[in-house]
WD40 repeat-like protein (Hydnum rufescens UP504), 1127 residues
Amino acid sequence: MPTDWVTEAEKNFLVKKSGKLFIYAVTAIRFIGDDRVQDPQTHLALILNTQSLREAGATPYAQLDKLYMEVLRNSLSSSNHREILRRFQIVVGSIVLLREPLPLRSLAEFVQYETRVVETSLRHLHSVIVPPSNTHEAPRIYHPSFLEFITDPSRCPMSEFVIVAVPEQELRHAIRCFELMATHLRRDVAGISDPSLLNSEVDGFEEKVREALAPEAQYACQYWASHLSSVEFGERRVVEALEGFSMRSILWWFEAMSLLGSISNAVMLIKEAHHWAGVEPEWQQSLGTLCGHSGFVMTAAFSPDGLCLASGSTDGTVQLWDPISCTSIATLEGHYNSVVAIAFSPDGSCLASGSRDHTVQLWDPISGASIAKLEGHSDEIQAIAFSPDGLCLASGSRDHTVQLWDPISVWTLAFSPDGLYLASGSWDHTVQLWGPISTAYLRRLEGHSDRVNAIAFSPNGLCLASGSEDHTVQLWNPISGASIAKLEGHSAHITSIAFSPDGSCLASSSTDGTVQLWDPISGASIAKLEGHSYSDQTIVFSPNGSCLASGSSDCTLKLWDPVSGMPIAKLEGHFGCITTVVFSPNGLQLASGAEDNTLRLWDPILSASPTTLEGHSDRVNAISFSPNGLCLASCSNDSTIRLWNPISGACIAKLEDHTDWVNDIAFSPDGLILASASDDATVRLWDPLSGVSMATLHHSDLVMTIAFSPNGLCLASGCYDHAVQLWDPISGASIAKLEDHGPVWTLAFSADGLCLASGSDGDTMPGQLQLWDLTSGTSIATLQGHSKPIDKLSFSFDGCSLISHSWTETFIWDLTSQPPYPLASGSSLATPGQFVGMTPPIWSQQGQWIQVMQEHNGHARRICSKDHTVRLWNPISGASIAKLEGHSEPVSIVFSPDGSCLASSSTDGTVQLWDPISGASIAKLEGHSYSDQTIVFSPNGSCLATGSIDSTLRLWDPVSGMPIAKLEGHSDWVNTVVFSPNGLQLASASHDATVRLWDPLSGASIATLEHSDWVLAIAFSPNGSCLASGCYDHTIQLWDPLSGASIAKLEDHGQVWALAFSADGLCLASGSDDPRTKPVQLQLWDLTSGTSIATLQGHSEPVDKLAFSFDGCSLISHSYDVYEDGP
């Protein structure tokens, strides 16, 4: 069509008619673009010819309603209006009124039309209903406003288009459900043959069920009673259908519900049908005798619907009976003394029993499962009662007290990685989101139909996963609260979920004995890991994501390849259900705890026979490695904590101050504090080196879970008293109490320490999610020893050592000593000399060592040299792997976080991207007009930033090699560039005496931080809450990167060339060039006090590179000490 077929006046008129409603614009575009019936100009004219823009008293949706009316009118052809309207009511009415969406083919089967007829009916409504791309997808309404329009007679003026859940519609749906069940159900419908097998024991179980029960048949089985209850009782057709179902299909239906994992719902559906029919139990004059207790019967109570009778006895058990048949349904065991009081909750979903053992037990009367054990009385229970709304349980005791309890519980907690959200999963089937900084309730995520057992954030924080006893995993957008996907595939309760470290894979374990691997982006199932013979209890990824471990109640562990889904090894040795599994920080050990009262240490690579750690006298509840991996802690129902040497397996200490079960333990990030949570209503802080109890933090009820913030400055504890407590682990003081919560069962901090998540359970106060802002640490010490400028630093993974490299020598620092001192050094460059104490440095062929970068997996090192090449080396054999040529003179090299890309900058103003496996050049990035001084990848590897002598920064896409943005603002050389740990800020230091903060997403300048001279070094603290900048004016400035405010100024230093934070953020190392002092100094600063801790001497030239080991025990410094005439 000609480009001017729509005039500007018509466009403006359409915009005004939209009334700022985006859905109006979208619907209008779809309607005008529908050329399957009429041309676009005709459809445009239909919209333009409707009434005036805004009538007096018109609602904001008036124009949208008129547009919807035109769409519906246009769906009618010139003839046979009556049949089209009938099909509309049946097809669209079913889409609106059915309890859950059905795929197109199943929808056609349900409404008894051919699939092509349903497709044709929906094709004319494509402006408002999303047509499925194939028959296996369900049609859905584009926007809720259309649903509201066609179900509200006051908004839709044509009554023939109004869809209301009238009895006739519900009658048709109820009868259709009975017809479908009569057609599809039969004995052994899935062809399993052996009725003694559990669902989890049947090969290809899910495929058999899918083939036997089509989606429309599954819908009929699950929702017939819902439609029946909306029909007036006595309607002949539905009564006949119900009688036929009861006589011919009901037993086959129970079998089908079992196959669908909904047998507990089947009981509720029968109760719903009884209520609709007004059926009451028919009692005989002669009552039956219920026999089964071995002691006196002390108490009995009927369920609210009268279909269940519970009795308590001096034999310590509760019996559930069918009062009509006088048969026993279940025996509930858990008390160890007489049961003297029993009460059902008003809705019949919970049974409480009180005993002379001083406890109250909560039970699920349908499954017979124990929900919770309530402890607090000091003498026998005499009476119990629920409040009328079921939200409170009261218990009276001979200890002269009445206790009030919340019978609902929160089961799981998790922080988002950025610390801005706390999520909690609850018994009330919901997930709650909280703001831990403001302590505000954010939103409630609804979609599960049973208890939420597990929640986890993806590493980037953009996805929240929840696992439930409804057999599904739900994916949510934590920002909007929208449901992203529903992952179905398990046939039993979800017990645990975990994201891989890179977020590309989600694993879920279930009591069906399987582990499922999912793609969290598409929601597709990647693999189903089968091998356990009983339910999986726990799953965990190795630190590098290459291995997934699962522990099961079948007493075994399995190791899996999460990429292929193939089993790697089966680890056997435990004689009880495995309760907890954890990898050591370096991934070289796997520890497991079990109900056999033991821990076992495994080699996940060799899968050799484990080391057995014995000492506990009851179930092991939790285990935790210290951050450096040199200590393993375990807690147990025997009320003790044990500390073990994971290398020798010896017990180091036994901590015994708790008086009840110890539920959880956690090390602080620096490993100096061990926290434990107990049923004795306390959290205890321990010194793991001496085993001495440092502090006792009191709750008012059972403490279920604890978690340290990543920077160690905050400890969170979740309690059954409906509160999350935040503590200062140094002083033991309470920071805050987060209430309006259910009983708290689990806690987790985000990776950057800015967020705390807590999970709880409640009805009026359903499970909550809290996020908390954690503060940063300060500088600790000064290290001296190099004689030339330092250009490279790196911490060891255990944090006990730091390696520093200069152009003439390399130092290894012991950070466990006071003050730190160099363990070893190497100084010859022209020819490789001896390097005492550690791995020798690697040299270029010309002996001109410039830079070392170590790949993430430690298998290769990369060398950049003045011979204009980059070389790849095998650090074990010393062999050259590849020679990368293309630069005129390389300046700097850096690996992407996942090791898949190597970037090198050059004095020729370009950046080269290389494949480190093949050595091939991926891309050449050109844009700077002078030499690139610095390059850095964002934490997730999605962006590469470069800074140059031309005073600019550039952002690049490392996958395509395309430029993203050019950041201008500096007026002199850009000396260094660094991303914040969460990747949301970029900092640059310049010769123009400023530090600039940038938004790497928009490229906008956020703040300018001013010095009085060249700024040569910058570094973010590990949690991103502090930015340090070192200047040529002999000072270090500490800044708040969010506000740009100055926190502190550290002086008495030389010209600062290098900065590095320790992993816990409590120590800052600075390297300088001070003409007043020879040798050159390396300073360590304590950031809590702002004072210098130590001065390390040894360098003779400026120190220009620093890095701590990961455990903070070592520091590496680099200097220009080699050549008299410069490097």
